[in-house]
């Protein structure tokens, strides 16, 4: 018998939706499956389009299988053909979604969106220029979707569970007695949803698709000029997937991959959808193709898909490319030990210079940050370089050496190496990214502010690995803070946070940038609020951002008078600080100073601030030394004037002038 859904009526919710959609940016409707969220949203959309003839209505529907594919649910709407950096892809996607003021976008089942799609929805809501209604289950919504209501970007309307809603048991009972041909339709949808109706007919039969639609378990909806088949409830796909035996599952995925490949265009999601289906099918693609697809997923920031594809390739062939992609994916997830074991198993005999370089870079970076062995990583790079003869490979090794030197607290040496790399005609994109980002941050902390923007632009113009954009962001924020442009610094930090795909650790690092600016603005409460979850997330990784987050958190808590909290954060910062975060030794000193000040030890605070300034000056970080002496001024240090007068010719900045003026005031008042 047909599956009749008992959808409760929510007249009050419909009224709230109508009011919300009347003005941008709209609303997010939350509630469990089966309460009528989709029905309500489509009713509201129908009312709105009837009242506004000629407006464009665009609909996006998340599904469990599309969640595995970057931009999967948005493929029919966004025009992005190049496998570029996530930030560039998001910009291209937003450009392709430009709408008139009265147009409406529906995003249904947003909890099933992939990370890039979810971030796109968040950015559209943040901009406030797109009228939208989003539906989601709260309990499993990804961070960008949850942020729609936690950041108060969209009005939240919650739909409560009603007694009349069709139960899970009802749906399971229907599936148990469903005709075999209808089960075949659902079996295919359990592996890919949606499916073009034409393809589903080819894979099953016209009669099967009609019967499934008549029985109420599927619906056919227009998407991007095609008729797409969806299940009417997520349970149908989930239960069908659970019941499939492994051989049948692989057979279905192989057939789906074949028809999807015949349709695939230039959209990144088309190619990766085929790859996702094919690797776990009875028709796996060639290893080289799988490695290429894994690399594409990695560049898009989809570490889960990159790992899955790379593991599939490695299971079929001990190819270096598969190991490298998998190692990157593991390391960027903070799984450094696994990445190290994978890279240690590489047989270097017979490798070309380019292959040795491609292997050495992730191994050294993983050893430096994730394993916390910076000295060994630096020695490994030095030894590797001595074995190379190709100038381009040597240049790339030098670029990573510059980054290591900067993090180890030697920005002057880092800048010298980086400048040599950037002037080399053999520097590839990876070398330029490492060198330019290191040069930008080193210049900012040394007080060479005029050089920051050119280096930042050069780093941003090339493809780069991992989280280097945040190094550039910290450089830009440092220069703007020193210039006294705190609003500009906050805007830069916010931009980097928004482009972090709201995935960890990117989101947490972006929040460290924001918190750093908040401290400069004197907003300790906001800084502490940001740094709590950020420090917790980064502590689990090996990045030097982790100790920095703890240092800043200790400072913020001390400024708020939370002495126990500050002491706890400071102890954690000290235990995790080392060579890999030596660049931030002055920040650790300032955290100590504020903890002493919170304990009413003014003399101790002044002494600690002086020590921090001394560390900054000895390591060539003149701009940071100014910041440290400014903190000493706040503690009433009469000796800060002489130090700031000595630094002023080197660090020509508004903050230097301000610190010096206040220091002279302290000296006069004594």
TrEMBL record:
The record's listing under InterPro entries reads:
AAA+_ATPase, AAA_22, P-loop_NTPase, TPR-like_helical_dom_sf
Question: What molecular functions are annotated in GO for this chain?
Answer: ATP hydrolysis activity
Protein name according to UniProt: ATPase AAA
Organism from which the protein derives? Mycolicibacterium confluentis
């Amino acid at each position: 018998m047909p599956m009749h859904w008992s959808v409760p009526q929510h007249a009050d919710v419909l009224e709230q939706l109508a009011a919300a959609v009347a003005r941008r940016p709209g609303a997010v409707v939350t509630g469990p499956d089966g309460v009528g969220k989709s029905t309500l949203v489509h009713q509201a959309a129908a009312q709105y389009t009837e009242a506004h003839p000629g407006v464009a209505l665009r609909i996006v529907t998340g599904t469990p299988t599309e969640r595995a594919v970057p931009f999967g649910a948005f493929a029919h709407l966004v025009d992005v053909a190049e496998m570029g950096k996530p930030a560039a892809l998001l910009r291209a996607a937003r450009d392709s979604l430009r709408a008139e003021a009265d147009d409406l976008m529906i995003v249904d089942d947003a909890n099933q969106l992939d990370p890039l799609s979810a971030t796109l929805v968040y950015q559209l809501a943040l901009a406030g220029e797109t009228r939208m209604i989003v539906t989601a289950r709260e309990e499993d919504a990804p961070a960008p979707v949850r942020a729609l209501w936690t950041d108060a970007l969209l009005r939240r309307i919650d739909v409560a569970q009603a007694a009349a809603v069709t139960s899970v048991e009802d749906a399971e009972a229907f599936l148990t007695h469903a005709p075999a041909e209808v089960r075949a339709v659902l079996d295919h949808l359990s592996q890919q949803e949606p499916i073009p109706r034409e393809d589903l007919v080819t894979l099953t039969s016209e009669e099967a698709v009609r019967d499934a639609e008549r029985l109420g378990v599927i619906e056919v909806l227009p998407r991007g000029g095609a008729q797409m088949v969806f299940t009417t409830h997520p349970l149908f796909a989930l239960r069908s997937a659970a019941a499939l035996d492994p051989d049948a599952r692989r057979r279905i995925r192989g057939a789906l991959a074949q028809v999807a490949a015949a349709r695939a265009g230039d959209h990144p999601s088309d190619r990766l959808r085929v790859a996702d289906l094919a690797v776990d099918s009875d028709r796996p693609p060639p290893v080289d193709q799988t490695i290429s697809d894994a690399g594409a997923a990695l560049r898009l920031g989809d570490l889960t898909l990159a790992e899955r594809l790379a593991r599939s390739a490695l299971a079929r062939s001990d190819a270096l490319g598969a190991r490298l992609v998998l190692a990157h994916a593991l390391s960027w997830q903070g799984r450094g030990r696994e990445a190290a074991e994978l890279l240690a198993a590489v047989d270097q005999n017979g490798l070309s210079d380019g292959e040795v370089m491609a292997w050495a870079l992730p191994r050294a970076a993983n050893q430096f940050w994730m394993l916390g062995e910076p000295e060994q990583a630096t020695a490994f790079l030095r030894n590797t370089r001595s074995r190379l003869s190709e100038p381009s490979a040597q240049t790339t090794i030098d670029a990573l050496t510059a980054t290591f030197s900067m993090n180890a607290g030697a920005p002057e040496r880092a800048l010298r190496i980086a400048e040599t790399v950037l002037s080399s005609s053999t520097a590839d994109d990876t070398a330029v990214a490492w060198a330019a980002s290191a040069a930008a941050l080193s210049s900012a902390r040394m007080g060479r502010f005029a050089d920051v923007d050119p280096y930042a632009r050069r780093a941003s113009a090339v493809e780069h690995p991992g989280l280097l954009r945040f190094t550039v962001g910290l450089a830009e924020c440092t220069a703007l803070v020193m210039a006294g442009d705190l609003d500009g610094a906050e805007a830069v930090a916010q931009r980097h946070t928004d482009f972090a795909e709201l995935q960890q650790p990117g989101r947490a690092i972006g929040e460290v940038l924001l918190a750093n600016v908040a401290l400069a603005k004197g907003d300790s409460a906001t800084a502490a609020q940001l740094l709590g979850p950020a420090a917790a997330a980064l502590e689990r990784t090996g990045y030097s951002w982790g100790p920095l987050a703890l240092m800043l958190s200790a400072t913020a808590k001390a400024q708020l008078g939370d002495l126990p909290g500050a002491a706890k954060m400071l102890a954690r910062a000290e235990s995790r600080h080392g060579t890999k975060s030596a660049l931030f030794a002055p920040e650790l000193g300032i955290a100590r100073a504020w903890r002493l000040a919170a304990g009413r030890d003014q003399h101790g605070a002044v002494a600690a601030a002086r020590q921090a300034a001394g560390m900054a000056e000895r390591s060539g970080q003149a701009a940071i030394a100014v910041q440290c002496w400014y903190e000493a001024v706040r503690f009433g240090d009469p000796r800060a004037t002489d130090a700031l007068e000595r630094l002023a010719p080197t660090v020509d900045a508004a903050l230097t002038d301000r610190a010096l003026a206040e220091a002279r005031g302290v000296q006069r008042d004594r």
